[in-house]
Amino acid sequence: MVLSKRLYIKTYGCQMNVYDSEKMEALLKPLGYAVTDAPESADMVILNTCHIREKATEKAYSDMGRMRELKNERQALGKDMIIAVAGCTAQAEGEQILNRAPYVDMVFGPQSYHLLPEMLAKATRSVEKGKGPGCGVLEVDFPEVPKFDFLPEPTEISGPSTFLAIQEGCDKFCHFCCVPYTRGAEYSRPVQDIFKEAKALVVKGAREITLLGQNVNAYHGEAPSNKGEWGLGELSRYLAEIEGLERIRYMTSHPRDVDEALIQAHRDVPQLMPFLHLPVQSGSDVILKAMNRRHTSQFYLDIIAKFRSVRPDIAFSSDFIVGYPGETDQDFEATLDLVRQVNFAQAYSFKYSPRPGTPAAALENQIDEKLKSERLQILQDLLREQQAHFNRNMIGKKLAILLEKVGRHQGQLIGRSPFLQSVHIKAPAQLLGEIVEVEITSGETNSLAAKLIAT
Ligand code: 5AD
Ligand code: SF4
Question: Please, what is the angle between helix 191-203 and helix 232-239, to 10°?
């Protein structure tokens, strides 16, 4: 097949968007589109947007403006460019995008990706008919039939570590979060579909699969041979049977949805990596309640203890929000306290950003930006210190590293430890995609260095 058209995709935000972008790429390939990283040469541009915080949304709007300039330049040369806005901002703002950026040709949400060829044909017809600005194709419904059945199987993978969406959407409705509105109600794919896709990824060379979902451990998919439903623990055990699949990870989890089966799986399944991203958001019970998180700080600490009792070396990561409406100094202190008790290997922390339509955005007791910044700084200093300590502790240890990509320096490869640390190693390029034994020689805040152990 001649791939005569150029497609530029820019992906914002989370891993689910990265996964979706790859699916869109695969859907457009049969229509003759090959991916380019030069937007000025693209016949079609997709901005796969993120809506989680205001900054992400504004970035997408500013990039739309940049694409408009490129489109104008191409039109001056007698060519054209279809501009598509996908992802969570597209879902949340829909028509507003066509009003604010009328040169956009297509706006569609994450539930409509399987309709991409159809939508593109419609948009192309509109362009050919010379339809005016603001007439772009809009698709932001939540269809009855889940899209997964219509998405193509993986044709290629970008490296030995890859993603697989097993669940989408969220029914938790934390009061700060737009995800339940942008990704819709929780849906779990049947076990056999996931198994088939995982096998296909392994055949393509995947050694590690990260199971994705907005609320991944709420997974409750149809089990094989009508055996009811399985949770993430059972699913992980089953996937671990795939020969050649060496590592399994999953994200993002909710504390409330951790069950015994998942904890036991961490004890029994060696392929399940000893690393867990488990967002807590705050250490204050008052704020957790206001956030509608449905758990207390003690509940979170108890879960951490349970995982540690079955897998003593397990490392934790988390998400935090500072400056949630009404957060007092005391509440913030409780967050620092929780961080000190858990001792995180890494974590993400954010200033609260009001999202239109979410309950917290309407609250009156919003926190001053300056205070948010001060708290963020204090929290990040503490988290960085813990991360540096965790990494320094690895010096002298022997670890198995999956070599994922070529490093910036000659003869250097970059891989990941079981604890998701980035590790730089001097190693021959033929080892890419292999899991090698190394000895850690140094540990900085963001990465480790190691030397190969001769085997
Ligand atoms: N403001 C700041 N951070 C947010 N997150 C979600 N919504 C908001 C918001 N309105 C953070 C949470 C979540 C992560 C993906 O993004 O910490 O776990
Ligand atoms: Fe958002 Fe996660 Fe809460 Fe769902 S569980 S509403 S995705 S923060």
Answer: 40
